[in-house]
């Protein structure tokens, strides 16, 4: 096990909670007719994309981000359901309320997953594994949904462990098991290793964590550039990143793909107005304001452009956001081709929320609780 100096007797205890097929499971929960059937959340049109797939659909190779036509081809019985993000957000809030019973150190990654640092055993459960089990049971009781969990001494291992026994399972990787666990991992399981990188690794005869660990840093830098240091550390089970309750968000945006190309100015402006409202709603919920507005346009030949404008002061209202977006759009009219996608992003964010005082009892990054087990 690798720990920072002075921390060998008290490694962090981190849980990664990941809801099982979250969007699709919510739909199956709320509509009994969908239970046991292959379900895809997303649009069924020729330009639709799968946002989430139930486990019944995954058996046919249906995955999120897959074009809907491909998903339907793989699973003719697939049932498409329109997403209900307001419902998913409400359920996510229920889940986070459960997390807060056990710790204030919560780092959300999305609506359906988060890291929790439970190094302080607030409720005297006795082990991080026991805390994860209690959280999963409470989620099921409160929401009717299942979650999986990974428990380990760092974020990298906790995230991978949460996928080991899905759905509705959990896995613990204790400090003395970390290096062996990583060594046995397929290289493609490392976070950030996509299909292209995995293919490149295979060409270099790197197939597992053990193979990665055998590589010198110079070799990794030569072939993987900026990812070299991460791969070097991860292959040794090293990850010193703390759980950050207030992740710095760089931008807030929204975009939409249309079933029919938008060509008329009136339709373009109307569509952009709706997107601006969505972005502003998200900025309000996040308690942020931004100075830079970026317009995204994707044409029907899949060519894409972005245009941005930065203001001296943060955007103060939805009307201002819409006005800047409309001005960016007007500069591109008439469009050379029909638009299949419109997007708007607010960046250069500043928080408008009051500063939160640190919670009592969690000032130390590594509280020493010798009797608190994994």
TrEMBL record:
GO terms for cellular component: cytosol. Keywords: Cytoplasm, DNA damage, DNA repair, DNA replication, DNA-binding, DNA-directed DNA polymerase, Magnesium, Metal-binding, Mutator protein, Nucleotidyltransferase, Transferase. It is found in: Cytoplasm. InterPro entries: DNA/RNA_pol_sf (IPR043502), DNA_pol_Y-fam_lit_finger_sf (IPR036775), DNA_pol_Y-fam_little_finger (IPR017961), DNA_polymerase-Y (IPR050116), DNApol_IV (IPR022880), IMS_HHH_1 (IPR053848), Rev_trsase/Diguanyl_cyclase (IPR043128), UmuC (IPR001126). The keyword Ribonucleoprotein does not apply. One of its GO terms (biological process) is DNA-templated DNA replication. The record marks 23 as: Substrate discrimination. It catalyses: DNA(n) + a 2'-deoxyribonucleoside 5'-triphosphate = DNA(n+1) + diphosphate. Its cofactor is Mg(2+). It is an enzyme of class 2 (transferase). Residues 14-194 form the UmuC domain. Mg(2+) binds at residues 18, 112. Binds 2 magnesium ions per subunit. Its EC number is 2.7.7.7. The active site is at 113. It holds the Pfam family IMS_HHH_1. GO terms for molecular function: damaged DNA binding; DNA-directed DNA polymerase activity; magnesium ion binding. Monomer. Belongs to the DNA polymerase type-Y family. PANTHER family: DNA POLYMERASE KAPPA, DNA REPAIR POLYMERASE UMUC / TRANSFERASE FAMILY MEMBER. This is DNA polymerase IV. It comes from Parahaliea aestuarii. The lineage of its organism: Bacteria, Pseudomonadati, Pseudomonadota, Gammaproteobacteria, Cellvibrionales.
